[in-house]
What we know:
The chain is an alpha+beta fold and about 260 residues long. The chain has a domain at about 140-260: L,D-transpeptidase catalytic domain-like, CATH 2.40.440.10. The chain has 6 helices and 9 strands; from the N terminus they run H-H-H-H-H-E-E-E-E-E-E-E-E-H-E. It has a 9-stranded mixed beta sheet with strand order 4-9-1-2-3-8-7-6-5. The longest helix is centred in the N-terminal third of the chain and has 35 residues, at about 1-35. Bound molecules: calcium ion (4 copies). The site of one calcium ion has 8 residues, from helix 5.
Amino acid sequence: MPKCYNHSMRRSFLLTLCLLAVLVALSTPGSVRAAELDRDADGLTDSEELTRYHTDLWAPDSDGDTFLDGDEVFRGFSPRHGDKKLSEVDSDVDGLSDEMELVIGSDLLLADTDGDGFNDGDEVKEGYSPTVSEPVRVSKRIEITLKTQTLAYYFGDVKLGEFRVSTGKRSTPTPVGARTVQNKHPRAWSRSAGLWMPWWMSIGNGYGIHELPEWPGGYKEGLNHLGIPVSHGCIRLGVGPAKLLYDWAPVGTPVIIKKE
Ligand SMILES: [Ca+2]
Ligand SMILES: [Ca+2]
Ligand SMILES: [Ca+2]
Ligand SMILES: [Ca+2]
């Protein structure tokens, strides 16, 4: 009799242990699973939809343009604004595009992410972190790689973007080295070359970064020259990127020119 009693006690004890194990297994990794859950199967996890993209975690196509939220993000389009690109929309009108906010880590729908009284866009423009309420400085810099004919610009360690450029041809090469933006002019005239240089940023010794040049007769250097070193030594940028960089980089911004 006591033997039987012990046996049933042991069995219920083992059953309780099993039940506990199942409960622990369901609760602890459950929070991890919830973070990775993609309940509308659109390629974005629930937590990404809630905290990063501010999309509908129950609707795979939040803006109803027939494209899935995840596909839109993957291809650089906004999942909240029809056929607009992330770089073309500024959801919270704080001066930073949705694309920039995602790269920097600030909130798409909060104009003042860190709640310090300064808008995200103003903080980035002035060189402060928009995600830390203390006045933390973040350095800006421009890097040009001659071999790849590319220009990248950075906010701290974060690469904000990269553009194709045209640097100096073999007979008039762009010198490698570390420089700074020394002065700026929206439309500078080159007396030596006889051409206009829109969105001019001088980096010293007559060299500069500017938009594809324009001749007095109205001819503008073609976009097809970007990616090929054909300039007199300056760094030429396309229409769009030139003004973007001009507005973004204050006088004093370091400019690093590397061979490769
Ligand atoms: Ca989802
Ligand atoms: Ca969509
Ligand atoms: Ca914004
Ligand atoms: Ca702020």
